[in-house]
Design brief:
Layout lengths: L1 H15 L2 H15 L19 H13 L7 H12 L3 H11 L2 E3 L5 E3 L5 H16 L3
Antiparallel strand pairs: 1-2
Length: about 140
């Protein structure tokens, strides 16, 4: 009976939390779960930002070459490459990315070669979605 009353108390407290607090809580939970992929991968993806343009472009090439992405992914990759031309570190990151190694601005890396095909598709979608914002 004690468990039941505790559960009811938790539900009532959760229901009384303001909408903005619920939104903040949901946002934090999504971040912890790797929400960029809907939490479906079971881990958080490396952060993609201005310091990782080369890596993102390389991974897009990897994804297109291995038929995980089509459509405008090659165009996005080309636009990103135009931004990093002449930047040696970014060009090195592109080379690693083209081999399936995503280096994030947060220091995390992900080797696409160890992922299942389904996970590669989701990870490629993540990179495309985030890389598009860097153009």
């Amino acid at each position: 009976m004690h468990v039941r009353s505790t559960l009811i108390s938790v539900v009532l407290i959760a229901a009384s939390v303001s909408a903005s607090a619920q939104s903040d809580l949901l946002g934090k939970l999504k971040d912890q779960a790797g929400s960029s992929l809907g939490g479906n991968l079971g881990f958080k993806m490396p952060a993609i930002g201005s310091s990782t343009v080369g890596s993102a472009a390389g991974v897009l090439q990897y994804c297109v070459k291995n038929n995980y992405l089509g459509g405008d992914a090659a165009s996005v990759k080309d636009k990103l490459l135009a931004k990093i031309t002449g930047q040696k570190q970014q060009e090195k990151n592109f080379e690693s990315g083209a081999k399936g190694l995503l280096k994030g601005g947060d220091g995390k890396t992900l080797n696409f070669k160890i992922l299942s095909s389904k996970m590669k598709e989701k990870a490629c979608d993540y990179v495309l979605k985030n890389a598009t914002s860097l153009i």
